[in-house]
Amino acid sequence: MSFIQIKNLVFRYERRRPPVINQFSLQLAKGEIMGMLGKSGSGKSTILRLVAGLDIPEQGEIVINERTIVDAQVCIPPEKREIGMVFQDYALFPHLTVAANITFGLQRWSRAERKKRLKEMLELVQLESFVRRYPHELSGGQQQRVALARALAPQPSLLLMDEPFSNLDTELKGTIRRELRAILRQAKMTCLFVSHDEDDIAAICDDAIRVGTDGEYQQRESS
Ligand SMILES: Nc1ncnc2c1ncn2[C@@H]1O[C@H](COP(=O)(O)OP(=O)(O)OP(=O)(O)O)[C@@H](O)[C@H]1O
Ligand SMILES: [Mg+2]
Fold it and tell me: In whole angstroms, what is the distance from residue 50 CA to residue 42 CA?
């Protein structure tokens, strides 16, 4: 049984329109990094929103580690899904330091646990010396790493990334790609990674699928 099972998702934003997502299915093994390619408007972000619980499918089922997070009967709210998210604009809290951003999702942890986890995350993304800075005092790539650390800190079962590099220049992108792959591997993170850029996918992912413009065509690129 796969670690993540997404089965026959159907979703529409408007009732009278055909579904944006039509019978979308995907399975991921634990620790697998899956790329998702597809034209603009094909439904990639919508699929991530359904997995995250920001939208609810009209049909279909999502199971993570044998726990059903959504189907016809069940709908676990986003904050209880144990899913980390990194989106395009990083969305760091501007008024919080690097440390406070990273530990934001750990409010129910003990002080000692929080401190330990912060240290681990800072080491992982190599930002130990930036812990007291604010987001505007960091470069784009550093902000991106903080966003990643914040998403990974609560130990999610799945990480969703939606065009996380779109604000980075080409040179920085090259470095970040290598870093990201290493970080995800080290954390043994299961990940769904959306990008327009086939080079991103090739550098980071184990495998990839393509979402068709009609939202219903998917195929494995390899394997
Ligand atoms: N809130 C909304 N209300 C109505 N339609 C929407 C809404 N959000 C997205 N759509 C439509 O759903 C379709 C899929 O959008 P989605 O954002 O998932 O595409 P995408 O593959 O992520 O595109 P991009 O690569 O440009 O980010 C598009 O046709 C879009 O116009
Ligand atoms: Mg999108």
Answer: 14
Q: Which residues lie across from 68 on neighbouring strands?
A: 63
Residues with CB under 6 A from ligand 1: 13-14, 20, 38, 40-46, 196
Query: What CA–CA distance (Å, rounded) separates 149 from 147?
Result: 5
Segments in the chain below pLDDT 50: 214-223
Residues, CB-to-ion distance under 5 Å, ligand 2: 45
Distance, in Å, from the CA atom of 61 to the CA atom of 16, rounded to the nearest integer, reads 23
- Nearest ligand by distance to the CA of 36: 1
The Cα–Cα gap between 26 and 127 comes to 34
Q: Which helix H or strand E contains 83, and what residues bound it?
A: strand 83-87
Of 12, 13, 49, the one to substitute when testing ligand 1's pocket (max ligand atoms within 8 A of C-beta) is 13
